[in-house]
Every structure is written in structure tokens, then in C-alpha cells.
Design a protein that fits this description.
This protein is mainly β. It has helices spanning 39-49, 144-153, 250-259, 304-309, 356-365, 460-469; strands spanning 8-15, 18-25, 28-32, 54-56, 70-72, 104-107, 110-117, 123-130, 133-137, 159-161, 175-176, 179-180, 194-195, 209-212, 219-223, 229-236, 239-245, 265-269, 281-284, 313-314, 316-319, 324-332, 335-342, 345-349, 371-375, 386-389, 421-424, 429-433, 439-446, 449-453, 475-478, 491-493, 526-530.
Length: 537
């Protein structure tokens, strides 16, 4: 930040990288009006604070109303500025705003990602820069969807493999225990849900790593629901171009899917008009035998007479690797109605014969631990669209739900009132055991059971994030006059130590999950939430 730029800070958020935007001008702190406030403006604030990229740009007093002057109005940043005060605005203190419009920012705590010790820039041990410190990432929950997101963010194509066993050497800094839960479509890891609560210690022998496709990523699929379905584009001469053909079929689609490491081809198609491309054409006319390793190895030099005989249109593919599973309409990431992405659309599963082994496969596939409960009868609400599978009969050991014996895709005798759902062991929730919900014994739901949180090492930052998670004001106090005696039920967590880098209770480091974490009533955390009422914006 060059000299003369106004200092900026974020207030009333969950840490120094989220909150209401405040600017210091003429020795006095003031706010920024949310009129015209957008992600470009937020990105400049995050950059100025060294807080990574912008995730949200809330306005209308999302982080509560400030006080004092409203220094900036009608802010319009280009995104290249070093400081917010470099952006154009109506002039210091010139506005027709009130504090109900105060602008806010939520930044990613992760300020950098890199791959180290590989033979190229597109392979190596994963390192993450967190508020000034580079550290390795624990591999315990690292999966190929997380790796795809990182490879794409680094302009390295897609993830070819995530080798285990430390092939890229040991790191020297900290080992971050954060678990990313990406669905593969995010622009960078900072956009993925993150948890660290209850994670076991991790050593440099268990560092996350990835080998990205790098230069071989000369193809991509756009407009689909995954990286393995959509309209085909090819990278040539420094730009992405459309692929057009008049006889596109499964032979060409097979080559595309193989080149992208997306498994077998399921469908070759010409996208409908709304999904067609508008940019430059990279390839017009292609004929494959189906066994080629790369689309450019097919016959792409068709005679003009052949090209003129047909109408070349945009082409698309659906590959086997596009299949996904998700849980929707539940209380969290690891509980909800089961839905499968197949043939380019999401659909549900019928609850006929739906049981715990089936649910176990779903939970394992999503990195949500084991299954606590398999539910039917649209327990998490009725879905819409296709019912993709019926009579699913997993052993529990399958890698994916579609590996289980079941009826044919789309064949069923069910209605959406029979949609299946699951509760997984990694579904977590927080509560305060008392009538008003904002004071009492702090409890966490894990592995299907409510249990206590112990107070050892608990700081006011931890209490504050617990209160915010519960929607119970923005601060709290840890009660100390507690009864003697033995605790009833499990004591799930101890040494929850939220720090400056944590913006959510679930991201805070702690001792590993253990039902015997605290067995004395005096060790249980009792808190009372105080401070300002949280505003939802």
C-alpha cells in the first residue's frame, strides 16, 4: 500500500477479514455507503488488507450499522487499485446515505495457493498462505474434486491424480488441518466450504499433493453441471474456441472424454440454441475412429466439399465422470435429500429398499463420515424432475452410489413423496441448552448425538463465533460458576481455540473428536451471548 492511501478495516465481523468496511480519513473512522457496492470494490478491500480474494460484498448494513461519518459514496473500483481510497467516489463525506446502507466485505482467509517440489509448476505438494504464513495442507480429507478446483485456479488444467505418501517431500512450516469440501465447480479453494473442528493432528508425512494435467488441458467442457459434461471448446493459439461439426457422434465424444480423464462417453449431442457458443471457432469438422488419445489426432483436415455438404453446429458431450451426488434441503452439508446428477440433470432416488448400507455409500462418497440414519418418505422434502434410481441395494463398500445394484436409470414406480435421504456422522450443529437458546450449556451435534463442548483453552473469540453461529448477538461471556458432578452424555470437544484466521466456529482448531473429552460438569462450557443483535442482510 503506497503512502497516502486511507487505512481501511473491517468491523463487527467474524475476524479481521470480514465485516463492515470502515475508512480512516482526517484522523476519524467512518463507513462506506453500500450504494453501487459490488464484488470489484470488495476485492480491492481484501487485497489492501492482505485477506485474499473477496467472497461476498454485502450491503444494507449486513454487519450492523456503523456510526460517525459516511466517508465514501458511489464507490466504483476497477479492481486494479492498491487501496479503496484510490477508487473513484463522490468525494469524502459527500453522500445521501444512512448507516442502514453501510457496505461490508467477506474475504477468504486463504491468501495464496501453490504447488511446490514438483518437476513443473503444475504438480507438487499443496501449500496454502494463511494470513502471512505458508504451510502444507493435511491430506486426510483431500480429494479429487478439491484438487480439480486448485488445478483450474492455477491455470494447470484438471487433476490427473492426488498421490499419497509424500512423493514431493516434507514441508517445513505448519500443517493446516482445514478440510475443503468442494463440489468441483468453484473458481478457487477459498470458495469451498471449510471445516477444521475435531480434526486429528497431521504430520508432514501426510501432506496433500496433486499432479495436474497442465499442457494437456487443450480441451474443456463449458455450460454443464460438472467439468465432465457440456459444450466442447479447444485451446489454440492462446485462445479458447468453439468446436463445430455436422456429424458429431459417440466416436468423437469418446475421444473427448478420454482426453479429459472423464471416463467413458455417455452422450454426444448438439447443444440447443440457448447453449450454443458465440466466440471464435477453433475447430470446424472432425472425424475420429474412437481410439485416439487426443482430439487433434483425429482427422481435422476435411475437404471443403465435405464441410460444405453439412451444417456444422456446436458440439457437446456427457461423460461418465459427470455423475455426482449431493444432499439438499437438509440442515447442513452432510444431511439431506439424496440427489444424483446424471445425463446433465439432477434427480432423486426412490426409498424402496433404501437402508443404512445405501446411506453409508453416499456419506463416504461425500466425505461425510459414516451413515447415522437412512430416511425415506421425503423426510427432507419432495424433490422435482427425474427419479433416477429405484431399488438400490448397496453392500456399503462401493466407491459410488451408481456402483451399487439397482434398477435401470430412470425406471421406477415411485413418486417424489418417496424420495430418499440420509443423515451422516459428520453432520454438525450447535445449540445452547436453555429455553431462550442464547445462554446455557454449549453443545455440538456429531455422529448423531448431542454432546458437550469443554471449556479448556476457550477464549472470548471462540465464544463470539459460537454466538454468531447461533444467531445470538456478536459477543458472549464464558460462565464460571458451575455445578459439581459428572456430566451426562458425551463430551465431544475440548480445546476449541478460535483465532484471528477463523471466520466460522466450524473452522476453529480443536482436540480430536472424543466422547470422553470432559467428564466433570465444571469442564463443560456454559456461555451467555451479549453484544449487538446480528442483522441478516
Amino acid at each position: 500500500m503506497f503512502e497516502g492511501a486511507a487505512v481501511v478495516r473491517l468491523e463487527n465481523g467474524s475476524g479481521r477479514c470480514a465485516g463492515r468496511v470502515e475508512v480512516k480519513h482526517q484522523g476519524q473512522w467512518g463507513t462506506v455507503c453500500g450504494y453501487s457496492w459490488d464484488m470489484t470494490d470488495a476485492a480491492v478491500v481484501c487485497k489492501q488488507l492482505g485477506c485474499g480474494s473477496a467472497l461476498e460484498a454485502p450491503k444494507y448494513g449486513h454487519f450492523g450499522p456503523g456510526s460517525g461519518p459516511i466517508w465514501m459514496f458511489n464507490v466504483r473500483c476497477r479492481g486494479t487499485e492498491s487501496a479503496l481510497s484510490d477508487c473513484t467516489h463522490n468525494g469524502w463525506g459527500q453522500h445521501n446515505c444512512d448507516h442502514g446502507w453501510d457496505a461490508g466485505v467477506t474475504c477468504s482467509e486463504f491468501t495464496g495457493f501453490r504447488l511446490v517440489n514438483g518437476s513443473t509448476a503444475c504438480e507438487g505438494r499443496v501449500e496454502i498462505h494463511v494470513l502471512g504464513t505458508w504451510g502444507s495442507l493435511c491430506a486426510s480429507h483431500w480429494d479429487v474434486l478439491d484438487a480439480h478446483v486448485l488445478c483450474r485456479h492455477l491455470d494447470c488444467g484438471f487433476a490427473e491424480s492426488i498421490p499419497r505418501g509424500g512423493p514431493f517431500g516434507r514441508g517445513t512450516g505448519p500443517v493446516w488441518r482445514d478440510s475443503f469440501h468442494c463440489d468441483g465447480t468453484e473458481a478457487h479453494l477459498g470458495q469451498c466450504p471449510v471445516t477444521a473442528l475435531g480434526a486429528s493432528p497431521c504430520s508432514h508425512e501426510n501432506n496433500a499433493a496433486v499432479i495436474c494435467s497442465a499442457g494437456s488441458a487443450s480441451l474443456r467442457l463449458v455450460g454443464g453441471g460438472s467439468r465432465c459434461d457440456g459444450r466442447v471448446e479447444i485451446f489454440q493459439h492462446g485462445t479458447w474456441g468453439r468446436v463445430l461439426d455436422d456429424q458429431w457422434d459417440m466416436q468423437e465424444a469418446s475421444v473427448v472424454c478420454r482426453q479429459l480423464r472423464c471416463g467413458e462417453a455417455e452422450t454426444a449431442y448438439n447443444p440447443p440454441k440457448p447453449q450454443r457458443g458465440t466466440g471464435p471457432v477453433g475447430l470446424r469438422g472432425v472425424r475420429c475412429a474412437g481410439h485416439e488419445a487426443n482430439l487433434t489426432l483425429c482427422n481435422t483436415s476435411l475437404p471443403e466439399s465435405v464441410l460444405a455438404a453439412g451444417i456444422a453446429e456446436d458440439v457437446g458431450v456427457v461423460c461418465w465422470g459427470s455423475r455426482q451426488v449431493r444432499l439438499v434441503n437438509g440442515p447442513g452439508r452432510c444431511a439431506g435429500r439424496v440427489e444424483i446428477y446424471y445425463q446433465g440433470s439432477w434427480g432423486t432416488i426412490c426409498d424402496d429398499s433404501w437402508d443404512l448400507p445405501d446411506a453409508t455409500v453416499v456419506c463416504h462418497q461425500l466425505g461425510c463420515g459414516g451413515a447415522v440414519k437412512a430416511v425415506g418418505s421425503a423426510h427432507f422434502g419432495e424433490g422435482s424432475g427425474q427419479i433416477w434410481l429405484d431399488a438400490v441395494n448397496c453392500s456399503g463398500a462401493e466407491a459410488a452410489l451408481w456402483d451399487c445394484p439397482a434398477g435401470s436409470w430412470g425406471q421406477h414406480d415411485c413418486g417424489h413423496k418417496e424420495d430418499a435421504g440420509v443423515d451422516c456422522s459428520e453432520f454438525m450443529a450447535l445449540r445452547l441448552e436453555n429455553s431462550d437458546g442464547c445462554s446455557g450449556r454449549l453443545q455440538v451435534f456429531y455422529n448423531g448425538t448431542w454432546g458437550s463442548v469443554c471449556s479448556n483453552s476457550m477464549t472470548l473469540k471462540t465464544v463470539s463465533l459460537a454466538c454468531k453461529e447461533l444467531g445470538c448477538r456478536d459477543r458472549g461471556i464464558l460462565e464460571t460458576r458451575l455445578p459439581y458432578g459428572r456430566a451426562s452424555g458425551p463430551g465431544w470437544l475440548d480445546r476449541v481455540e478460535c483465532g484471528e484466521r477463523n471466520s466460522s466456529f466450524w473452522q476453529c482448531p480443536s482436540a480430536p473428536w472424543d466422547p470422553q473429552s470432559c467428564d466433570d460438569l465444571r469442564d463443560e462450557a456454559h456461555i451467555t451471548c451479549t453484544g449487538s443483535v446480528l442483522l441478516q442482510g
